[in-house]
Amino acid sequence: MRTDHFRPTMFIILCNLILSMGTVAQNNIKQYTEGLNISFDLIESKRLDKAISLLNQADISLQKANALFDKLTEVEKKERVSGNYQKALKTLIESSENYKEAHTIIYSVFKNKADLFWKKMSRMNHYAAGMDKAKYYEMEALKKYNRALIRREQVAENDRYEYALNIMNDAYQLEKLAIRDEGRAVQICLDYPVEYNYGWDDDLSLEEIVKIMRDPAVKEPPADIFATVDKDAEVDSSLFKELIFKVQIAAHTLPLTEEYLRTLYKGGMKIDMIFEEDWYKYSIGRYLTYDEAEATRRECNVKKAFVVAYQNGKHIPTQDAIKILEQRKSLEKSKSE
């Protein structure tokens, strides 16, 4: 009786699994080379095959994560602490990491091809006049790819499933656009010195691209995770009237929004932004002693937070700042004696 019941049940499970695998694992490299005529060598093809395999794994993991989340009660979704909720979130993050790795492989295969072209031009002391369009697409690809990386970081550090799923989708779309733009740059490089009218969607005319390349004031509206921070604006001088210690919670070459920063730091302290050495640095607190800053670092629950020091508006090594304070105390003590 048990054996007869077990066999059809297992058969149904296996059939459903095969069908689900078939409906999910539909990725192929053609979806990333649409509108392009690019050939790949054996090593590149193997890397792309690995990327497609990772994409298929990511699709399956995402399906599992959504299925787990759908089974949660409303209380579990609201409180976000149950084992089932954490399992769904963990599976979602695993899916995100697979998507990230897969798209990074495809992007790097395209970028390496473009890099080879520019290196060849450099060796020949030939700067490939008229290649503004290829340079523009490479610039756009890098910008989108960097934005996607920030989105992936948000997924990995978030504890809200639905929010993580939304920003994960943003990252996915940005990565696909980055690969598309890098692929277009490669196509232009491979066709050089012949110029074609490719008829790509969302393509710009050469005149529009030249204007953008030559006029840095012409910019896209920032994406929602990028704050419109003026890096040339003066920093509030009240931050640096004395030697102070702060707790740095994040840093990036691109400005970050308050929304994203609050996913890293969930406390109520004001977040300061300092732009230096081409980095946007975000920190909390203003302390006259290292111990006060270190106490905040321990309590802020930001994994990669650390104490930084500033004197006269300039960043200095934390150990140097501690020595300066010790010297001041020693001098004051000697004067009092």
Would you spell out the secondary-structure blueprint of this structure?
Layout: H1 2-24, H2 42-70, H3 74-79, H4 83-123, H5 132-157, H6 161-191, H7 206-214, E1 244-252, H8 258-264, E2 271-276, E3 279-287, H9 290-299, E4 306-311, E5 314-316, H10 318-336
Antiparallel strand pairs: 1-3, 1-4, 2-3, 4-5
Helix pairs in contact: 2-4, 4-5, 4-6, 5-6
What does this structure look like?
It is a single chain. With 337 residues, the protein is an alpha+beta fold. The chain has 2 domains: 24-214; 237-336, Sporulation related repeat (Alpha-Beta Plaits). It has 10 helices and 5 strands, in the order H-H-H-H-H-H-H-E-H-E-E-H-E-E-H. The protein has a 5-stranded antiparallel sheet. Strand 2 (271-276) and strand 3 form a beta hairpin. Helix 2 packs antiparallel against helix 4, helix 4 packs antiparallel against helix 5 and helix 4 (83-123) packs parallel to helix 6. The longest helix is centred in the N-terminal third of the chain and has 41 residues, at 83-123. The protein starts with a helix and ends with a helix.
